[in-house]
């Protein structure tokens, strides 16, 4: 596999030979901690089949990853006088925790999948609402980062994701993350991309906008209503620093809305698509899908985790996520940019009409199938072909040839779950 790089224009990602790369990710935070090798292979094979490109997984995992062993009874770190010691990874035996991580990373590479490796979940340096324990300071974070960087130096399918759902609230938190980034760079020779996974409703640009080690930014629009309009968070990120950016944790399919199962509503594929296409029109370098029952790899359904992970693996949101990549890759890739000038927006909740354009084409997203008043006179062409792209099926069907004038575009269906993308192609000048 080729390593990933930032495109020279600074907006998107590509492989080493310049091929466009859209980061379609899946959150599998507990992958190394909770699954057997056979289960991990099943998970990776399914995600490859569904069209995913990147798997986000944590080495020192959230669910008591330092004190509860993995599927083979192994812990990542030896115990020292003060608890788990980040300077003493447990490497003994053929089935060490680290052997298991090696196996999964290699199996991902066999399937053409990249792995966004989090060296640690954030509660290991900022306990906040987690279980920890806190084990990092700025000195041992650098040494631990160097160890991880050296171990995966030759893995072309790896990129680094710092952070782990925690804010940097003190100078010490910032120093720890900076030190870990330096350690990773020392260990791998600076050969892998680095980003940062922030807490909910935040952007990595809130914490690391001026760090030279940051190759691209991510936001977490999250699972509450506070950052429901993910596109606003992305715009704020774009204003702070001119680097590629994306949403690394939007609303998860099958997640209790606002973390509260008593509300009786779980985010579904329709909700997932809204954030996906709103974000797409902002010129993101990628997008991460997530399912609440998969990142956690729960085996028994409950009110809070309504499905076993093996059942949730086939839910519609996962299959539909790859259709956005299909749309994005079928026309000139690197010229794409946000194009709010092409539409009259609707500021109501769920109603944001978003547009983006590239050389000779434009996409306009209507999240509820509401009519679009499109300013097509701003397209550089005299004859336009209009098509409807169905984000549920991936079918694109032409429906009109139009002059380049203000136009009312009425989708085939309306209502929640009846979102559409109008594709405008310039076919005559």
Give me some keywords for this one.
alpha/beta, TIM Barrel, six-stranded parallel beta sheet, six-stranded antiparallel beta sheet, 26% helix
Characterise this structure.
This protein is an alpha/beta fold. The protein has two domains: 4-329, TIM Barrel, CATH 3.20.20; 339-428, Sandwich (Immunoglobulin-like). The protein has eleven helices and 22 strands. It has helices at residues 31-34, 37-50, 97-110, 138-151, 171-188, 205-208, 230-240, 269-280, 292-295, 309-312, 316-329; strands at residues 4-6, 13-15, 20-21, 23-27, 54-60, 77-80, 83-89, 114-120, 158-163, 194-197, 202-203, 217-220, 245-247, 286-289, 337-338, 354-358, 361-366, 372-375, 383-389, 396-403, 406-409, 420-428. Strands 10-9-8-5-4-14 form a six-stranded parallel beta sheet. Strand 2 (13-15) and strand 3 form a beta hairpin. Helix 2 packs parallel to helix 3, helix 4 (138-151) runs parallel beside helix 5 (171-188) and helix 8 (269-280) packs parallel to helix 11 (316-329). The protein is globular and about 75 Å long.
Q: Short description, anyone?
A:
It contains eleven helices and 22 strands.
Distance between the termini: 41 Å
The strands making up the biggest β-sheet line up spatially as: 10-9-8-5-4-14
CATH superfamily of the largest domain: Glycosidases
**Strand proportion:** 15-25%
Level-2 CATH architecture of the largest domain: Alpha-Beta Barrel
Query: What share of residues is helical?
Result: 25-40%
The CATH first-level class of the largest domain comes to Alpha Beta
Q: Which fold does the CATH topology of the largest domain refer to?
A: TIM Barrel
Tally of structural domains: 2
Radius of gyration in whole Å, from Cα? 22 Å
Shape: globular
